[in-house]
Design goal:
Layout: H1 4-26, H2 33-55, E1 56-57, E2 60-61, H3 65-84, H4 93-109, H5 122-156, H6 162-166, H7 170-198, H8 207-230, H9 234-262
Antiparallel strand pairs: 1-2
Helix pairs in contact: 1-2, 1-4, 2-3, 2-4, 3-4, 3-5, 5-7, 5-9, 7-8, 8-9
Length: 265
Amino acid sequence: MNPAYPGIAAALFYIMGSFMHVRDYRARRSQDAQRLLWIALPALFLHGVTTWLLVRAPEGFNLGLYSAACLTTFILAALTLLASTRQPLHNLFLFVFPLCAVSVLGGISLSTSFEPITDLSGVLLVHISLSVLAYTVLLLAACQSLVMRLQENALRDKSDITVLRLLPPLQTMETMLFQWLLVGVLLLTVAIASGFAFLDNMFGQPIHHTVLSIASWLAFTILLIGRARFGWRGATATRWTLAGFALLLLGYLGSKFVVEVVLQQ
């Protein structure tokens, strides 16, 4: 099957969901969880089919820039949808839907010089799986920190106080943020450790990939320590979260972009 068919359909669902989300937000209306579910479920299914068709290439496993981004956002949408059944996270779709739409359209329309992996050993599969899970959980934390930034801005702007009624309490959002950060840092720790322990030459990877991943791990770890020891919260927490994820993004997708698109290696 051509991945463009389910990919375009998934992107249309995501775009429709984004439009409805923005419209409700601008109208200061609460999100209809049932309506979001009926948009997210078919979008996620079609996104999953597209991801499988892109990653499982005839020559092996295609984990190039655009297919990896499509895989990451698929897991992000699945985690957000699953978590939203237990926690008030529906507003995260304000950022998740557009990210998914862009990644799916990029996956079906763009390609790079990446050579599919023909021999995916068990050790390498574990390392890649842990890395992708860590990136996805920390991406979810970054989206949550953006929602918190909206809440903080609303608190400062008293005329925009109606926005606060559309979002969960800031303390609840902050607690969930640090829960995601803790899980993400644990996964990232194991992913980096598995790379050093099992890969033949961890620093044989693009050097900036390894260095930036470690720098991101340090930023998130400092934030968690600052939270536990000094009670860091609010704007400090969102700034550190976004800075840590920016480093991770540069190390993960940034390094792949340089190698596969700029250098075409």
